[in-house]
Amino acid sequence: MSENLPSNERPDLNPPATQRSPAWIGGVVLILIGIVFLARNLTGFELGNWWALFILIPAFGSLAQAWRLYQSSGGRLTPAARGPLTGGLILLLVAAIFLFDVDWGQVWPVFLIVIGVGALFTSFSR
Fold this sequence. Notes:
flat; about 130 residues; mainly alpha; about 65% helix; 4 helices; single chain
């Protein structure tokens, strides 16, 4: 029946792929948390502040948003993508500090470095 329709009115037999919902991020984080707890139970592996694993949920969400914005802009790191990227990196850093019981006094300059790299990207893109 579609053979009789003009080419601009034929139904699309290959609809565009649907995008994944952001719920996959939570699934990945829960799998990682489960692996950490399983490793702890089986090997005695110990993380200092296991609750800090939950900081990874918004961190991965922010990084995934930055990746989507990067891809949608044709592979350019636009200001819209830099914000979520910087925020995700800072959250990853905070989670790592809590998880591995690192002294804040030793690593606080890393925050300045991450923010400075974001500022450099902003200045070079203009």
